[in-house]
Amino acid sequence: MADTANINKVILEVRAGTGGDEASLFAGDLMRMYQKYAIKRGWGFAILDASESGAKGYKTAVAELKGQGIYEALKQESGVHRVQRIPATERQGRVHTSTASVAVLPIVEAKEVNLKESDLEVTFSRAGGPGGQNVNKVESAVRITHKPTGIVVSCREERTQHANREKAMEVLRSKLFTIQHEQAVGSIDQIRRDQIGSAERSEKIRTYNYPDDRITDHRIGKKWGNLEKIIEGDLDPIMKAFGQPTSGK
What we know:
This protein has seven helices and eleven strands. The strands form two sheets. The protein has an eight-stranded mixed sheet with strand order 2-3-1-5-4-9-10-11, sandwiched between helices. A three-stranded antiparallel sheet has the order 6-7-8, with helices on one face. Helices cover 30% and strands 29% of the residues. The protein is an alpha+beta fold.
């Protein structure tokens, strides 16, 4: 992919993997970590769609981030993240291992992707959640299925059908652009595995070990302490290890 340093908008997708409710809680922790870091960096951040699981968990969550050089800064976050900790519901004090997958996709202009209207199946529904009477009465939430690949995207953040459709199309173009540039031939399942793995515990890029207060990135063999500080949005040590600018610059 050419000139990634100039890609200033991305789609961030976090999905709970192996581990049931604990995996959903971890997915929520990761999304909030990126949100807090985005605020620290002065980046724009907006949740486009989410499938919630409990008060603080997500089965899936999709956000749009905007900022100078943001794709270059976050691209190494794509992959399977693993957590080792004692869940709040664990009565015997046993450490559980769960996973969540992260995908960082560049947002591209419409001209970059050959997209036919006949390939799309578009449905509308009530958005639900906060937002007042308009959200509850108007079918503003949008769900788009790309029939050739089976990719499904949705958005319910905006207040109008048109705005949500545009955001959903942005997500779809990003996914198709990534497919076209990273793998010319192959199924959509294989493409996703190539980017984030199958979310199995063994396929991990990073481990968050709470009992040992340690984060390990398995690709570069680097370890960090102060796990809670990093989870609260201080990703600068990790950014620095990957040669990326930090919030202090």
